[in-house]
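Q: I have 50 residues here and want to know how they pack in 3D. Can you give me a structure?
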Amino acid sequence: MNTTKEIRKLRKEVRSLQDEVRAMRYERLDQLIADMKTAARDMLEASRVL
């Protein structure tokens, strides 16, 4: 049987794990956006050469 203290501790752990997952998701999105900007810049430079 879990005590109230244990439940609070588990909730806190779950919250911190959710925050970590959220941060990882945003890092991936930021990287994707940076990759897309680089690709767009490369395509623009290539089109100027043509």
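Q: Anything worth noting?
A: The helical segments are 4-49. The longest helix spans residues 4-49.
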